[in-house]
Amino acid sequence: MPERPEDPVLKSSRREAVVALLLFAAACVWTLLYTALRGYGRKAETLTFVLGMPDWVFWGILLPWGASFVAAFWFAYGFMKDEDLGQEKDAGSDG
Question: To which H or E segment does residue 53 belong?
């Protein structure tokens, strides 16, 4: 049986899902690794503050999730595309 060409909507949806998951995974890995390495087992005298919060909170939590917000905005308004779904069926017709 000959293979049918892949649906363009499925193809773009799969691509968008992969990009979204990679962005999410990158932010999670950065947050977990940075806060584990820089936030725990630290002496109080080495603690510095950025915008009134501990430096490891700023660089490990606020910055990556702020970047995630910017990436989500780009993803939603720049990367994702509407696909043509074909001709709309008449509401009154059967089938």
Answer: strand 53-54
